[in-house]
Design goal:
Protein name: F-box domain-containing protein
Domain F-box: 1-52
Organism: Caenorhabditis remanei (Caenorhabditis vulgaris)
Number of helices: 8
Shape: elongated
Strand order of the largest sheet: 4-5-6-3-2-1-7-8-9-10-11-12
Strand content: 15-25%
Helix content: 25-40%
InterPro entries: F-box_dom
Pfam families: F-box
Radius of gyration: 23 Å
Distance between the termini: 44 Å
Number of strands: 12
Length: 296
Amino acid sequence: MRILNFPILVYENILKHLQPSELLLLSFCSLRTRALVSRMRHTPTHSIFVLVRPEEMNYALVNEPEKEEIVITWNWENEKMGGVRTERIKSKYIDLECRITFKKNSNTPVLWCSFENQSSRKRFATVLHSHMCEVFHVKPEMQFKLSLDYMNELPYTNTVRDVTLLDTTVNSQVVDEFFEKFHVTRALFSKSCKRNNPLKDSCKFHQINNLFIDCSSWIDGSYLLKFDCQNLVAIVPSVRENSLIKFVNQWLEGKYTKLRTMAVLLDTDVDAPIVLNQFSLAPWNAEEDKINYDLP
């Protein structure tokens, strides 16, 4: 590789101008290029596996929720592999024959791989993450963003930092299986807008520390009382004044010992003064009323 023939200051300057996806491909070229990329000053960050369509997975770097930067995509649609020229990707954990293309808009590399079975796909995802941890200083705890229709494609792990759930066709039994298999250590983001969200009939996620639930018309007053989290943010158009008053009273009486903050977006016809007049309130004082906890 010609870059290796340059003086050290030259190729170090070249590497500084490469995108993460370009550095990733370079790190696959040889053990020497892997070492070059690894010696760079990478800002420690998290990563996320994105599964939103069949036969395709994305791996992205992310510092904030919903702001992931996809660095590589791999696809296992075997009918598109016939008769094409393949490249060999090899690293400490990876030895793979595949076709490489690039997305037009983002220039993200796409690997077209003839994975023979699901276990080989899961193994590739797992070792790719290990490679990113060692070379790019990615933090080891994984994150997922997926439709649970593709849950069985996820890499081998028992713990997950954050999970974002998208629209799915599965039932609550599959949801329970997911939360039994993966221990979510930080936050659950539900992005499904379907009224028949399978979370409705699941109880396995109620104790996740941080819950962010969009379009949750299925959460009524009685369901609101089931949560046992630290921080709850939810759009709850079905919750009425009496239910919210009951929830806050139980919180003040000490029932929800874990709960620190709650933000609920109610329906427009909910009479806020009816709720607020039930409690002794004082203006917020940023100097005196300090809340000390790690933001989710």
